[in-house]
Predict the structure of Phenylhydantoinase.
Amino acid sequence: MTRTLVQGGLVVTAAEETYADVLVEDGKVAALAAAGSSVARGWTADRVIDATGRYVVPGGVDAHTHFDFPFGGTSSSDTFETGTRAAAWGGTTTVVDFAVQTRGRALREGLDAWHAKAEGKCAVDYAFHMILSDVNEDTLKEMDLLVGEGLTSFKLFMAYPGVFYSDDGQILRAMQRAAGNGGLVMMHAENGIAIDVLVQQALAAGRTAPRYHGEVRRALLEAEATHRAIQLARVAGSPLYVVHVSAEEAVAELAAARDKGLPVFGETCPQYLFLSTDNLAEPGFEGAKYVCSTPLRPREHQAALWRGLRTDDLQVVSTDHCPFCFSGQKELGRGDFSKIPNGLPGVEHRMDLLHQAVVDGHITRRRWIELACAAPARMFGLAPHKGTIAPGADADLVVYDPRATQVLSATTHHMNVDYSAYEGKEITGRVETVLSRGEIVIDERRFTGRTGHGRYVPRTTCQYLA
């Protein structure tokens, strides 16, 4: 049994901030004691990490990643090996990725394929959601089995007709099943049928540049789908989690539902908080780097997103990390924006960008940890082992320097993608040392982890519904 002592730092959790020393034994948090107290002075350890002048925060939980994800004739450029290593560099110690059901095939077959992609390759811990592409009697029964095994969330799409799209009847049936088995339905809320009409009209009119990706995927069509998903969940008596919320009007739909006391939740992502349609409109084909769905919105939507994060109408910030290289992948859409693979890199920068939001006054330090660590852990059944620093929790710890500055760039990031969505952005705050289950995986800005350290984590059901 190894003992590690992290001493002298300001321990920040969603619940409190206190100067405390943290004792780690055998991969778990064994105890906390006030810094300099007689209890802390009596501790001995094999390793001592000096966190003086630093924060000690829980490892981040990114509940929305897509590693090695097939889309648009190609696959996302980060594998589970490269993606989880980049996550560790950014202070994220648990990711929840999406296993994909192939239309016409069993959920189990898709889940087994994703286990094969991830097993023995991850640098940090991981879990899965299940993408439901084909709702039928067999897959509805499989939902019950997967919940019993610790895969407790299922994503459906109101977008991408012919690929992942489910109609309202299929969505209702899946929600009814989730209402009975304790699962959580995650929804990509955009009116894909209407969007496809606007896409074809834009292309026919010669509007082919990346900027039109954002223009056809109207904010109102995100809001309409969000409203419809909420009403279907009410009919089914099920909870609902809306992914990658980007539009002010969609936030308003979530807020109205929550004001009624409905079990409706929402996430947003750093790209919607820090980027905008200005990026999609960058000259030439540069805007393709910023094509994702839901799309980037005009900058004026950001105020509503920040407000939603402060008022808890949005509970989680995930990345929807789904990178495609500009060269050879994003370029598939030259001359036709609808063929640009949808997705941005971000798993490495979420914790830092949210700390920048603290510096900028958008959120508090504790809210930073709530959004990035504690809330996703509770939402997806990973608490109390993940998302906090408390006796018995996994020793997923980040020593964070709140005063260090860094410039985000493709030349220095560790994601397997040839551009940065935040190229040249200077931010304050930087991950210094990272422990995953007590093992140092980043040691003063050096990667000391290993492929295969990360374990698969079965989950309980959503802990906001207990």
Remarks:
- The chain has 14 helices and 18 strands.
- Residues 361 and 374 are 20 Å apart (CA to CA).
- The chain has a mean pLDDT of 97.
- The longest helix spans residues 219-236.
